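User: I'm putting together notes for a lab meeting next week and I want to include a structural view of one of the chains we've been expressing. I don't have a solved structure, so I'd like a prediction I can at least talk through. The sequence is below, exactly as it appears in our construct file.
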Amino acid sequence: QVQLVQSGGGLVQPGGSLRLSCVGSGFTFSNSALSWYRQVPGKERDLVATINTRHVATNYPDSVKGRFTISRDNSKNTVYLQMDRLQPEDTAIYYCYLRRTTIWSTNDYWGQGTQVTVSS
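Assistant: Thanks for the context. Below is the predicted structure for the 120-residue chain, given as C-alpha cells.
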C-alpha cells in the first residue's frame, strides 16, 4: 500500500536550518508530484511547496519563498524540504502529501507529520 514516511524536524533556533525527508513506497515515485504542507493547531493545513515529475518546484507561498527549497531524489524515493533562515512563525507540523490518480480512483495520502519548532 502507499506509504509516506517522514523524518527530520525538531527544535531549532531562529535563523537556523532543518531538512525534512519523506520516503514514498507503494507507488511509482518518479511519476508522481509531491508536496509539503504545514499546519498550526487550530488552523488549516497550508501548502508550502510542490515538486513535479520534472523536478520543477512550485507553489511556494510568499512567507517561505527564498528560504525553503523542495527537491527530490527518485533513486531514493525521497522528497526533501530544506528550510533555511527559519523563523518562529515557521513553527508547525509539516506533512508530505501525494495525490495519486489511477484509472479507478483519486486518493490523497499524507505522511505521519513532523513537528518543527523554531524558538530561542
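A couple of points you could mention at the meeting. The radius of gyration is 14 Å. The chain has no helices and eleven strands.

User: Perfect, that's what I needed.
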